[in-house]
Here is the input.
Amino acid sequence: MPVRISAHASLVFLFDLLAVVIAWVGGLLIRFNFIWPSDSGSSIFLILAMLLPIHAVACYWAGLYRGLWRFASIPDLKRVLNAIAFSAVGLLMIKTLFDVPGPVLPRSTLVLYPVLLAAIMCGGRLAWRMWKEHWMYRGLPASGEPVIIVGAGNSGRMLVHTLEHRAEWRVVALLDDDHTKWGRELSGIPIEGGVDALPQMLKKHNAAHVILAMPSALPAAIKRAANTAVSANAKVFIVPGIEELMCGRVEIDAMRPVEVEDLLGREPVHINAVHVHQVFARRTILVTGAGGSIGSELCRQLANFEPKRLLLLEISEFALYSITEWFASHHPEVNIVPLIGDVRDEARIEEIFSVWRPQAVFHAAAYKHVPLMENGNAWQAVSNNVFGTLRLAHCAHRHGVERFVLISTDKAVNPTNIMGATKRLAEMVCQAFSMSSDTRFGIVRFGNVLGSSGSVVPKFQAQIAQGGPVTVTHPEITRYFMSIPEAAQLVLQAAAQGENGEIFVLDMGESVKIADLARNMIHLSGYTEEQIAIEFTGLRPGEKLYEELLADAEQTLPTPHPKLRIARSPQVDEDFLGNLQNWLESSTPLDDENVRHDIQQWVAEYTPPSAGKSRVCTAV
Here is the structure.
């Protein structure tokens, strides 16, 4: 594509031709000790007349006028050097091929001419850029908020260069754990130590902002830096991950505030996408609870594996509407079928299986809120979590579904509350079906997910927005956390590799103190604990100080995926399903105490709250 020569480019072109005159004449003057060789005047100007068109062609060939002088950089310098080399070769050809009248052309001019030409052309461009930036950005470095950048690598260098032109920021120091960089400078900014020095540096420079420029660092390193900055009450930002930068999806300065997920330091999940695609592509897949936190993310993840059809079953009209709208905006090519219904409604479930013939089922519909299910709603937890699973599993078995996956919880392990006990009973239902059905039944058990409905994160966010206090039940209470996308990806991986009857346990990483999570969220919001207080309210009914992922009698086995293990639970007896169905169908709604009493007959490891007090206290 031809380059349009603007008025500015024309001036640059004239400057480059003038550079030829100065370099040629200057080289001769240097060669003859600044005494003009009067007897060579005609040959000097004849050679100059031939050099000018050669240099003009060289500049156009090298593409010198495509770039902007104000942004002159290494590629522009290479173009200039290419043009100079072309011009120098032209001078050599003139000397060799043409019979120029007058004294012989001094050989030293073959060196002096390109050196002076390079100095004039490169120096002129550099001087223009320095002058332009001085007038455009003068005063900016002194006007912005002082900020410290953690990471003195390529990303840090690019960020420093970008922030030089921003009025809102003023980079005052760089930190990096590579001690060989300490005491040196990067783009004029001193590297003053490692991450551990961050609190002192914030005080030294009176700074309140930190940017983490560590896109290629391990999550553990980012977690450490983020926690150090948050603990120092700094406002923390982070640059995008290296994958996003390399793919060009974001700019180096597209920073975002540090979030709770960054403080967990979890490694990114990588699943065997090829295998998952082979299992679920061109299949009709039913997701119950499709509008919930986990159910909706499962639907989003499944959309990437080319399903034939997604059946979205949801009891909440608004939740179903929301996920349907998301698909309309993000994946209109996916064939979705929104279905209002209750998993306890046998006629509705039978209708769905008869009409749509799902080949895989992800059962995420459940009542999951521990305190709500503990008082006044215990029988509803049994009805939804157990009876609903039983009816759905029966239908899947009768209609020859290939795979059935139950989304379970860590609260099903040694449960001390109704919610956990009913989820353990639902696990046992799937285990019983796996003993005699051609359908592959699998269970995936994991802990809390960040941002899910009913989790502490949105609750804390709302309390902070209202000015506090942030309420935590106990100073020592801990929970496992993972992100919703991470959980959904691992569920798909477990579902794809499951054989029959396994309970897959997700690697939840290290448990997190809820009090520490509250403190971090307060600091991330720009407050101190003096401004937003933490209030301890006491353990709620059925609540543990800590959660377990495996029951006492269970053993785990590794799987091909490092973040998945298989829990071997005691098998249920052959009469389990029939006896359970008789109890569920013959019983009228029971009060909470009767539900607790009866469930103990089905779930031996269930310990009601009154019986579990000594166990809870020992964990303090």
Remarks:
- The CA atoms of residues 378 and 593 lie 9 Å apart.
- Residues 245-250, 611-620 have pLDDT under 50 and may be disordered.
- The first strand starts at residue 145 and ends at 150.
- The two ends are 74 Å apart (CA to CA).
